[in-house]
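yo

u said u wanted the structure for the complex thing, so here. seqs first:
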Amino acid sequence: MNDFNNDLVEIDSGDEPMSNHSDNPHFSTILEKRLSRRQMLTGSLGVAVAGMFGASGVTSLANAASGSFLPPAAGAKPPFALNPTLGFDAIPVTRSDTATLPLGYKAQALIPWGTPVTGTYPEYKANGSNTGEEQEQQVGSHHDGMHYFPMKNDPNGHGLLCVNHEYVDQRVFHAAGATLVAGQRPTDEVRKEIAAHGVSVVEVKKDKGTGEWNVVNGNYNRRVTAGTPMEIRGPVRGSDLVKTKFSPNGSMTRGTINNCAHGYTPWGTYLTCEENWAGYFVNKTTPPREHSRYGVSTSNGRYRWEAAQSGADEYIRFDASTKAVDATEDYRNEPNCQGWVVEIDPFNPNSTPVKRTALGRFAHEGAWLSPPQLGQPVVFYMGDDAQNEYIYKFVTKARYTRSVKGEILDEGTLYVARFYDDGTGVWLALDYNNMAFQAAAANANVVFKDQADVLVNTRLAADVVGATKMDRPEWGAVHPQTREAYMTLTNNSIRAPGEIDAANPRGPNPTGHIIRWREQGNRSWAEKFEWDIFVLSGDENNSQVLPEQGGPALTQDNIHASADGLWIDQNGILWIQTDMSGSQQGTGPFGANAMLAANPVTGEIKRFLTGPNDQETTGVVSTPDGKTMFVNFQHPGDRSQPGAFTSNWPDSGAVYRHPGDPEVVAVPSGARPRSATIVITREDGGIVGL
Ligand code: FEO
Ligand code: CA
Ligand code: CA
Ligand code: CA
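structre next:
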């Protein structure tokens, strides 16, 4: 029986989350003010950039003569080559059930969902009949954020891949879809779904002969799932808001859910970020603000894990209804244990993952490190991916030394961004002890008990200080040389024309844009910044590169929509990955979801890669030499029904093709589609992208 699959289609095929209902101003006249000021000053929008980044203490970077946007350190003393030349021919808009790569490039598929990696190494069963116990020893589903940790003795041929598994598509995941009988789920189906979430740590090695990458069946391999015990650290540890029957003192919880993008630390650990976790819970009693502001359901959980037939504690915890006198006797606080950044030490497979609560609780897309500087605070940028939610950063209290560990993340200041109409912005502290924060809370008539309360209710705290509502912040990327930060704003269907602002200048915004900022004095921990828009994504008639500089519209070589994944590599290439859903991918002008490469200095953009049917391209990292690139294809065959697959990638047909090769057509009765990592190299062994 699949009588709730119809509900799931909508949820599974996209992650369009809830919206911010707070009454923060949209700064609706900001764009008009900004544009009219510039036009008045210069007579045209095209050359209006001149004053923008030269206005304050920030290093002047606008180069009006060439129209380029020069990183501040580019002319100074580059710590390494900054050479973002795009040395490949753009591939066309494509729809084909395989990867399409530029001429001169090749690829293999690695660690698809179901690959055995631990324990007894149970084989993947192509008919979807693996058990929950087997899934616990196999690579999870819906690959997303990813990092590669190189081994010291062979960094470019041997390392640990950490891969997030965001969710499951029950129609593809089980042999015949999900089962629901009299409101209950078969326990093993639930166990298997829980096991396919979380993170895989997989040791991978390049075969020196063939050049192929393989899984090493070694001791580093590990599955972290939506059921793995985790420690709660930072200001929320021990708070009444995280006390549960499982952990009456509020120090532990189980599982990490909807792991979207990621981060990594300078001390060699992986950060996995909990995004659309709220929908996995149900609260049928009166939801407190820390549930309702995040969209915890009042009817049933997304997959009804709370209704597993066994009724075991590990499943009923997804029902956050108040059932007992005291919070230590039920799971009313279980949703408060999700929405965090979780630190995992990939080199210690026995370590307990740690929820670093000082970094706030929201629909965390990822956590992006600004290149650390000895003797200065460590800084991470973060986005809350929901309509009209916010951009955050975290600044550690302690200073960076080569001996710091994860504990440095337990004390610091969480900030939220406000973007002003004149191209400047401020970071507003969400700090219980900060006078301005206290005044803002009092002014809004909102009471916080302590910093733990502020952090569990991060969205509310950000509402209170008047942060700028953004068009769904997804991935960030920080330039390794200049520390300039980029962030995708994927789209926003509910921004009304009257609610636009300079930082979110289109309403509605179906195709999204990429914003970037530079901190005052190029200090990532500064409280002021300047910003502009790198690209307004869209088709040829509704797009512009570097609009502040009067840049060109996108062309067939680079039109794209709903940018999501983002990464700046060792050579300064900005990689942009798209996550169009539904009709935008199926019938629009953009073709399949793609990865593009951009030169952040000149604004040149070229389409590099497209993926198989219905997938989103998300997650990208390379070996330190830049010669092997790992990219994830998530949810190929996203519009499948049980037994009728809209993609067969990667198990049948070619893993990749080149432009001009025959298109690959999916066979509904063919292989079950599987999320997987695609390993991209150049046929001549050169650096990918250059
Ligand atoms: Fe899981 Fe915001 O993407
Ligand atoms: Ca998605
Ligand atoms: Ca994403
Ligand atoms: Ca997305």
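The first helix runs from residue 5 to 12. Residues 15, 166, 260, 275, 365, 385, 474 surround MU-OXO-diiron (ligand 1) (CB under 6 Å).
cya
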